[in-house]
Amino acid sequence: MFSFKNKLLFTAAIFIVAFSFGQNKQLEALKKTINHVAIDSSKTIINGIKSNQLSYNEKADFEYLKANYHKLINEDNMAYKNYLEAKKRYIILDSVSKVAQINIEMVSLLLAIENNKIDYNIYIKEFLDYAKTAQDAKLLSEGYMQLGKSFYNSNPKLSIDYFFKALNENEKQNDEVYGARIMQNIGATYASDAILKLDSALFFYDKALKVYNKNSLNEYISYIYINRGVVFTKKKEFNKAIDSFLKADSISVKEFKNKNKEIIYGFLANAYKENKDYKKAIEYIEKQKVFQNILDEKEQNKAIIDIDAKYKTVEKEKENRALKQINFKSKITIIIIIILLLLSVSIGLLSFKNIMSRKKIIEQTKNN
Which residue has the higher pLDDT, 127 or 202? Predict the structure, then answer.
């Protein structure tokens, strides 16, 4: 028979297990809603999770999922903060694969931010080091893809080399959709002002579009029409450009919805202006301003820089404390060694004096 105390402890244990199971179910549900880009449902689940009652590894997962949620709604500063917190926890948990995944997602986030000031090269290096060690074609493909993006402005030819490396690695795993995303980036680089191979850009966009249409990927279809519109603008085929941008605007998207609209309306305003339809140009400038105010990217960029600086300061302080502890221990060790040496010398001198005293006594005895 259980005593009342044992029954109470048993009941409490069952309650804790049940609560933990409930929290796990919530995290699983959050993961699903984020994967399905169900923004409102994700927000409701996040607000319902009591983070102070999660285990350490659950908190790591929760921070990671929150980062993905904030990224979807273009709250880049919050996403970056959550990624850093999740990474810190996964490092302590020695979850190297998850640390690698966060590294590449932070790179992707920072590359998408206009006028980004944060150095993301360390994250790329850490990710590629892990991918090469793991000999994982998927991870290497992702790493080369982000490297390609990182050189888009400074060295577009090198950028294309990395994109083709990503394509080669992707062929080993035969991921059709990811291959299309790489081809889309190749197209964008060919369309850059430093290269301007516009027909080559359209060729790769069309190849990617076929895959996106086949898989009914609305977000990516919308991006392709934006890319095509940019190419037609550079070719000075403004009616085709406007048609492409309007097609992009007509497609319902869930991911990065506000950012997508802001980009489309900016390009439409420019295309209408170049086509000398100034009334329409002004109309779309006003529409773009609405979404610029919603996004407030300058403030987000400042916040990201502050978060990064604080994170690095905290890490530096930890290093300094560790060094101080090491230095303190080193000083103590040196002091102990000096004391031991002094004691050894003192003992040696005393022993020598004793020997000399005994020698004198022996000599005196002999003389007597």
Answer: 202
Residues 6 or more apart from 111 whose CB is under 8 A from it?
120, 146, 149, 150
Specify whether the CB–CB gap between 186 and 204 falls below 8 A: yes
Helices (H) and strands (E) in the chain, counts: 15, 0
296-305 in b/e form (b: 16+ CB < 10 A) is ebeebbebbe
Q: Which two tokens stand for residue 285?
A: 């400038």
Question: Rounded distance, CA 288 to CA 283, Å?
Answer: 9
Contact 75, 259 (CB under 8 A): no
Q: With 0-12 CB in 10 A as exposed, 13-18 as middle and 19+ as buried, what is 149?
A: buried
pLDDT tens digits for range 323-367: 555 555 556 667 777 777 776 666 666 665 565 555 555 555 545
Q: Is 87 within 8 Å of 107 (Cβ atoms)?
A: no
Residue whose structure tokens are 């790591």: 60
Can you give the C-alpha Rg of the chain in angstroms?
A: 32
Tens of pLDDT, residue by residue over 139-178, are 999 999 988 988 888 889 999 999 999 999 999 988 999 9
Buried b (16+ CB within 10 A) or exposed e, 20-43: eeebeebbebbbebbeebbbeebe
How would you label 120-143 residue by residue, b for 16+ Cβ within 10 Å and e otherwise? beebbebbbebbeeeebbebbbbb
The DSSP secondary-structure symbol of 53 reads G
The structure's pTM equals: 0.62
In this prediction, residues 87-105 reach a mean pLDDT of 90
